[in-house]
Amino acid sequence: MDAHTFFYDYVFFALLYGLPIYMCNSFANLSKFIPWLGSPVDFNKNWTDGRRIFGDHKTWRGIIFGIIFGTVTGVIIWYLCFFKYNLFELNPSSSWEPTSTGYPVYPWYVGFFMSIGDHAADLLGSFIKRRMNIQSGGSLPLYDQGSFAVTGVLLALPFTWGLTNIWWLFLTLVVVTPFVHFIVNIPAYWLGLKDVWY
């Protein structure tokens, strides 16, 4: 397999497959410019250790808009893959039988579950940071750079199980995501969307 084929078959499709996760993550940050629904997810409550549960940076608008844009992205990919370009294929060894629209391969609603998985990692990370006395908006190295891709894919996995090379796509996404994170995070930091460049 040459480099071009490898990139196209694995990196491109992995990024396409996980795009709802990236969009959810990005629009959750961009939502800070929206003047409403800015209440913290934890309602300013403290945990038993006296520290905030999640912190001020985890807001309902971030959760809601992240899920909306992640879900919409999933719908767009579903449409393009099955009605325009037929990009994703069903694994012949899969026990799942595809419907006429190919739902078991990449259903239109998969972006919703990827977004939920993204937020799950984000909230868990915030909870851990508060316990470690890392200020709200601070970074937890390694965790912040790729955990959201892992949980996003895992939560959507039952709905995409029949996809050809699903585990290779998953592993590629996990490896590539930290690089994508840095590429996106640095300009976001310069624009004031992120508190840290990493």
Tell me what you see in this structure.
The chain is an all-alpha fold. The protein has one domain. The protein contains five helices and no strands. Helix 1 packs antiparallel against helix 2, helix 2 packs antiparallel against helix 3 and helix 3 packs antiparallel against helix 4. The longest helix is centred in the first third of the chain and has 28 residues. The protein is globular, with a radius of gyration of 18 Å. About 7% of the residues have low confidence.
Question: How is this fold's topology laid out?
Answer:
Elements: H1 3-30, H2 60-84, H3 110-131, H4 143-156, H5 166-190
Helix pairs in contact: 1-2, 1-3, 1-4, 1-5, 2-3, 3-4, 4-5
What structural class do you assign from the helix and strand content?
Answer: mainly alpha
Contiguous helical run count = 5
| Number of E-type strands | 0
Rg on CA atoms, Å: 18 Å
Unreliable stretches (pLDDT < 50, length at least 5) are 92-104
Rounded mean pLDDT score: 83
Instruction: Note the main sheet.
Output: none
Element order: H for helix, E for strand: HHHHH
Strand content: under 5%
Distance between the termini: 33 Å
Share of residues in helices: 55-70%
- Compute the number of structural domains: 1
Shape: globular
Entry summary:
This protein is an all-alpha fold. It contains five helices and no strands. About 7% of the residues have low confidence.
Keywords:
single chain, 198 residues, mainly alpha, 5 helices, 0% strand, globular
